[in-house]
Amino acid sequence: MTTFWSLFITVITLGTLAGCAALVIWCSKDLKGISDGEDMGHEYDGIRELNNPLPKWWSYMFWATIVFSLLYLALYPGLGNFKGLFGWQSSAQNISNVEDSRQQFGDDSGINQYARELAQANAIFGETFRKLAYKPGSDELLDIPEIAKNPEAVKVGQRLFIQNCAQCHGSDARGQAGFPNLTDKAWLYGGEPDTIKATLLHGRVGNMPAWLDALGEDGVKEVTTYALSLSGRKVNAQEAAKGKTRFVVCAACHGTDGKGNPAFGAPDLTDNVWLFGGSRKAVEQTILYGRQGVMPAWKDILDEDKIQLLSAYVWQLSETENQ
Prior knowledge:
Heme c 2 binds at residues 208, 250, 253-254. The chain crosses the membrane at residues 7-26, 57-76. The chain is built from 13 helices and four strands. By secondary structure, the chain is mostly helical. The protein has three domains: 1-29 and 48-88, no CATH class; 113-185 and 299-321, Cytochrome c-like domain (Cytochrome Bc1 Complex, Chain D, domain 2), CATH 1.10.760; 206-295, Cytochrome c-like domain (Cytochrome Bc1 Complex, Chain D, domain 2, Orthogonal Bundle), CATH 1.10.760. The strands form two sheets. Strands 1-2 form a two-stranded antiparallel ribbon. Strands 3-4 form a two-stranded antiparallel ribbon. Helix 8 crosses helix 13. The model has no long low-confidence stretch (mean pLDDT 89).
């Protein structure tokens, strides 16, 4: 954390405590010339304010919380870069994944609670994952379509999906704006079993550039009209024709026919499946300002057998949904 932000946090925190203390002091003072229980002349919604002192137990409790806060901030981290007199920290701050934890602490990761709990879970359930993902008596993984035929393996894959993927793709895997629906056939990078596994292992980074500067506002409107026409939408034919001539800058990724290119993760514009919304405004915003999407890599988070089971679950979603 930079010195500026450290000071900013420190000033805000201590200033808030000082403000609370000043408020208690002010409210505890007797107002000169006004007796206890006297009407203060204030009324709100039929309720009149009387000059009654704060309850002593309430004032003492408030002061106790302020003193406790100051002691806590002195002993533990909380004021910017100040680490506290105890120098305590919740975990090794340089650890970003399970592999980092293993390298730093080894298998006996008593300091890192997550790594410890993960090791315990693998000890209990690891053999179950292995039986479902590997060929019997072998270190060779089962093919993903073969795993997908096993109802028990699919259920395990579904639980892995809910734990790790549902936050973005939804518990039903139908996605939301900016996160693909995994139950249809509209795969950005391809829906083959090995391709899905590669996506899970290594992640994906999508980048749709902004075209406002290159096309201008009129050009963006024309290309939007042409893009909408590719999926069968009724549009202004003359404007679509102009957009078609400008579409040459888009064809490098989406193809001259607009059917996309899995090598780039460029979507098919002819299927009426729109990742960020299919309204004219949404499509126009995409062309104007571009879109950036990131699918995280899971190879450092999930073991290979879990990746194989998860891949099988995701693959069979679109296969069974579209039979």
